[in-house]
Amino acid sequence: MEYTIREMTRAEYPLLEDFLYEAIFQRDAANRLPREIIKDPQLQVYIRDFGKQKDDACLCAEVRQTVVGAVWVRNIPGYGSVDSETPEFAISLYPEYRGHGIGTDLMRQMLAHLKNAGYAQASLAVQKDNYALRMYLAVGFQIVAENEEEYIMVHRLERYPTPNA
Hints:
- The chain has about 160 residues and is of the alpha+beta class.
- Helix content is about 20%, strand content about 25%.
- The protein has helices spanning about 15-25, 40-45, 100-115, 135-140; strands at about 5, 55-65, 65-75, 90-95, 120-125, 140-145, 150-155.
- The strands form two sheets. A four-stranded antiparallel beta sheet has the order 1-2-3-4, with helices on both faces. Strands 5-7-6 form a three-stranded antiparallel beta sheet.
- The longest helix has 15 residues, at about 100-115.
- The mean pLDDT is about 95.
């Protein structure tokens, strides 16, 4: 599948509502959570006023001039927060675009962006039975904490290869 990864424009930030909903791990595809769940304040921290904080960054994947996925980071008190210096990842693709390597490419490009911007590490939270866990491990995230339902993972960027300029 041909796709392009680029920086998301400010005019496209409203799409983050869709991608936030798609980022929620749903164990039962036949009984998805209601879309209104993204109004929960614990989820809104991932998208509210996106682009206004200095740590906000977003890349998107485009297929045939349509945005089909996004990875975004911000320094927030989210589910995967580890400290006040570490941006937290959120990533999702529309279901029909999963399994084509797009998510892995989005992750790698955002990790390179964060390293180039001088960050020491990045974090995320993932449910223990989420299929995306394999991808996070493959791109270099490590489990640093866990609770009954999820892992907190960190990628130490000093170990990330510097991309060719």
